[in-house]
Amino acid sequence: QVQLVESGGGLVQPGGSLRLSCAASGFTLDNYAIGWFRQAPGKEREGVSCISSSGGSTYYAESVKGRFTISRDNAKNTVYLQMNSLKPEDTAVYYCATDYLSYCGFRGSPLGPWGYWGQGTQVTISS
């Protein structure tokens, strides 16, 4: 079964850090750009970041620039989203996603939307 699997979410205090992981099941990630988007209750989906298949191109939403870092380890078939200096407004379900292409921006914007995504992982920032 081909799927993306997110992990690493949790509850942290403001100012804390989390590292999300996106692993592939049934296929290898190294040929594909991978994005992250998030959705908070009652809010629209927001593209957060994207990394090209080589890792040479990365993109970030203004709301996370300087705090989040996307990276990939193709040997481990995993993409990461390191999130630092977390704020309550970062609270959302985070999804990794792909269009099974090597570059970000197939549908116009490098921050999505994408056609395929995993089940998501909850991130809650609260004191």
Task: Tell me about this structure.
With 127 residues, the chain is mainly beta. The protein has strands at 3-7, 10-12, 18-25, 34-39, 46-51, 58-60, 68-73, 78-83, 92-98, 116-117, 121-125. The chain is 0% helix and 45% strand. The strands form two sheets. Strands 2, 4, 5, 6, 9, 10 and 11 form a seven-stranded mixed sheet that branches. A four-stranded antiparallel sheet has the order 1-3-8-7, with no helix packed on it.
Write the layout of secondary structure elements.
Layout lengths: L2 E5 L2 E3 L5 E8 L8 E6 L6 E6 L6 E3 L7 E6 L4 E6 L8 E7 L17 E2 L3 E5 L2
Unreliable segments of 5+ consecutive residues: none
H/E element string? EEEEEEEEEEE
What is the distance, rounded to the nearest whole angstrom, between the alpha carbons of the first and last residues? Answer: 39 Å
Largest sheet report: 7 strands, mixed
Q: What is the helical fraction, as a range of percent?
A: under 10%
Mean pLDDT across residues: 95
Total number of beta strands = 11
User: What is the structural class?
Assistant: mainly beta
Overall form: globular
- How many DSSP H or I helices? 0
Strand content: 35-45%
Rg to the nearest angstrom?
A: 13 Å
